[in-house]
Design a protein that fits this description.
It is a single chain. The protein is an alpha/beta fold and about 550 residues long. It folds into three domains: about 170 residues, Thiamin diphosphate (ThDP)-binding fold, Pyr/PP domains (Rossmann fold, 3-Layer(aba) Sandwich), CATH 3.40.50.970; about 160 residues, Rossmann fold; about 200 residues, Thiamin diphosphate (ThDP)-binding fold, Pyr/PP domains (Rossmann fold, 3-Layer(aba) Sandwich). The protein has 20 helices and 20 strands. The longest helix is centred in the N-terminal third of the chain and has 15 residues. The radius of gyration is 24 Å and the shape is globular.
């Protein structure tokens, strides 16, 4: 491509995004990148204007999860960048492709601690795959193309690019870079043959799916593999959408507070296939599910990044391949295992028994029953979003994800994720029902993005589970310091009125029987909506109350 006419750095940058197929981005505007905002005025890119950089970055991260292409976010320098670090950290721990563009002081002012100046390579060096400052407009095509490769190849993750303000207004004659497609890493035939032999000889195999670089086709291939090899399949923490819950080989998800029978099945497996994921702290039950460095199980680890193979667990067989490439090749070529389906059937029955009927807990609003109603009411393509907190335990236990890319949740455990991710999900898929679940503490960490939903006409439904406290921390307090409550009580607003104040639909739910009709009215309104559900503080987990937890703690102390 010829260099063409001279363009400003801002225009060159936006043209690179278009060349890479970017159709949507998020931002909080800032004077440090006015030239980019001006170029976006004439571009065919949907710009979601957000209320806080943390929410904007989380929306971009959610885009990366939904599409496999980098989510794009623009923020201003200094406090704008540090606010956005929440989303960068999620993208890193969740292996999500994302690019954060940050305004920077003029090049001639660097090193003086000018207004809102930061060293972005230093600030983001430990939480991004690559952090760089663009020094000249002429190099922007090179830098942006490389950023797309770094963000999407191997183990995906975030890239941070600093944009000096004066660089964005200088002109250059330079050609656009071509669209980047990430390299696909394929498994070797010898490794696939060896794996097939290991599977054929196993008596208690178990597959655990996790990580990113999956696709709908790869998930379908994984179902064929499970059926051909009578293989029980579990999913890692907050990756439940990778295998349909109604499939007869589904064994459940391994995360916080998993089904004890599933955890035992993983510990007792004679062959453990870890596909795409890292089995980090949460799914590994604080690194106790497998011995380190040499697991007691025969471990086969399949991952697109060689740096993750043997990083924590030393596998008997390490295969560097993307989940998509592996699943397609193994489903096509591997011989069928001669194994009856008893193990897979038993694993699925254990899952159904664990997730079928919620316990009755104190209070008029039975959250478990509401979750089971959503399980039956929502179409398979609905998208469920959540942040972090004990309220998420009901989702993981009782909701059944049946389709790829129907779950958005941070494996990093970051609060405040549910609302912004739901806004992006509904913008990306306006024809699908999108529900955000949030605790009262979680909601107010990014609840301001409800205003973004109203401004752009994005009809998400937010279910706020209000128990008047930071419930997870209170649970830990009762576990370790029973009856010594400190810094966990919350005084909350009327969240239904909050929704109406922004121009959305809001309702208060105090009893179980009020939930379903309120949800239907919220859906019928066609507006962004909040259902304010009051949960008894004693109902701290799907199975135990606060009093039970504190009584057990006191009994242990004697």
């Amino acid at each position: 491509m010829s260099k063409g006419a001279a363009r400003t750095g801002g225009r060159i940058l936006v043209d690179q995004l278009i060349a890479q197929g970017v159709d949507r981005l998020t931002c909080v505007p800032g004077e440090s990148y006015l030239a980019v905002l001006d170029a976006l005025h004439d571009a065919s890119i949907d710009v979601l204007v957000c209320r806080n950089e943390g929410g904007a970055a989380m929306m971009a991260e959610a885009y990366g999860k939904l599409t496999g292409r980098p989510g794009i976010c623009f923020v201003t320098r200094g406090p704008g960048a540090t606010n956005a670090s929440h989303g960068v950290h999620i993208a890193m721990q969740d292996s999500t492709p994302m690019i954060l563009f940050v305004g920077q002081v003029e090049r001639g002012m660097r090193g003086r601690e000018a207004f809102q100046e930061l060293d972005y390579a230093g600030v983001f060096g430990s939480m991004a795959k690559w952090a760089v400052e663009a020094d000249s407009a002429a190099r922007l095509p090179e830098i942006v193309a490389r950023a797309f490769r770094v963000a999407t190849q191997g183990r995906p993750g975030p890239v941070v690019i600093a944009l000096p303000e004066d660089m964005l207004v200088e002109t250059a004659e330079v050609a656009n870079a071509p669209r980047v497609e990430p390299a696909e890493v394929h498994a070797g035939a010898a490794d696939l043959d060896r794996l097939a032999g290991m599977l054929a000889g196993a008596e208690r195999p178990l597959a655990i799916l996790g990580g990113s670089r999956w696709s709908e086709e790869a998930c379908a291939s994984m179902q064929r593999i499970a059926e051909a090899h009578a293989l029980p399949v579990a999913t890692s923490f907050r990756r439940t959408h990778l295998f349909p819950a109604d499939h007869p080989n589904f064994a459940g998800d391994i995360g916080i507070g998993p089904n004890p029978k599933l955890a035992a099945r993983a510990r007792d497996a004679d062959l453990l296939l870890l596909i795409g994921g890292r089995l980090s702290e949460m799914p590994s039950q604080s690194y106790e599910l497998l011995d380190i460095p040499s697991p007691r199980q025969t471990l086969v680890h399949i991952h697109p990044d060689a740096g993750e193979l043997g990083r924590v667990y030393q596998p008997a067989l390490a295969i560097q391949a993307t989940p998509s490439a592996f699943a397609e090749a193994f489903a096509t070529n591997a011989p069928r295992a001669q194994r009856n389906g008893a193990e897979a059937a038993a694993a699925h029955e254990d899952y159904l028994a664990w997730s079928q009927t919620p316990s009755t807990l104190p209070g008029r609003f039975q959250y478990g029953e509401a979750m089971c109603w959503l399980r039956e009411r929502l179409p398979a393509d609905s998208i469920i979003c959540n942040g972090a907190g004990n309220y998420a335990g009901w989702i993981h236990r009782y909701y059944r994800f049946r389709r790829f890319a129907s779950q958005l949740a941070p494996t990093s455990g970051s609060m405040g994720y549910g609302v912004p991710s739901s806004v992006m999900a509904k913008r990306q898929h306006p024809d699908r029902i999108v529900v955000s679940l949030a605790g009262d503490g979680c909601f107010l960490m990014n609840g301001q993005e409800f205003a973004t939903a109203v401004q752009h006409g994005i009809a998400v439904i937010v279910v706020v589970i209000d128990n008047g406290m930071y419930g997870t921390i209170r649970m830990h307090q009762e576990t370790h310091y029973p009856h010594r409550i400190s810094a966990t009580k919350l005084t909350n607003p009327d969240f239904a009125a909050y929704a109406r104040a922004f121009g959305g639909h809001g309702e208060r739910v105090e009893a179980t029987e009020e939930f379903a009709p309120a949800f239907e009215r919220a859906l019928a309104s066609g507006k962004p909506a909040i259902l304010h559900c009051l949960l008894d503080p004693q109902a701290i987990t799907p199975a135990r109350t606060l009093d039970q937890i504190s009584a057990q703690a006191l009994a242990r102390k004697g």
